[in-house]
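cron nightly-structures :: item 1 of 1
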Amino acid sequence: MEVIQVGKVHKVHGIRGWLKISFSYPLTALWVDELPPLLLGTETKNLPYFPEELSATSDEQYFLVKFEDIDTPEAAVLLPGKDIFMQLGREQEFFVTDQEESAFDFVIGYMLLSETGEFIGTIDDIEAMPAQDLAKVHYRGKEVLVPLADELVLAVDHKAKTIKVTIPDGLLSL
């Protein structure tokens, strides 16, 4: 299996076996709970580790990860310094590897729902902007651009192909 390096393990964090890691690419925030096993080691010799929990540090440059079956600092002590790999091709599902692409390109075709569950429209395209990405949908016969900033995205259901967002006041009445 071909792999690609996507990050590095830096150090043990806390008393429950958490690790401080960094990724080589921006992580698509919405995938955090669905990360596949991460391969730790070298390009030719690595072992799978299954993320249970993942959270960003306050500066969002590092992440804290809790792997299954790593519950103490003693169990985690051999992992700092290891590179993090992923099966080649899968990285595009979880990371923004092309900076001209949007982190939300995967939701094209998803149904956009308001915070109350109202169907707004199907996402036709994503406009990647410097400040935030915009979902292009048709709402009541007109094209609307809905911001997809991380703080506005409430939930993504990949099975149902829906994304629930907070709609800024007045946006749909323009």
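cron nightly-structures :: done
DSSP finds two helices and 14 strands in the chain.
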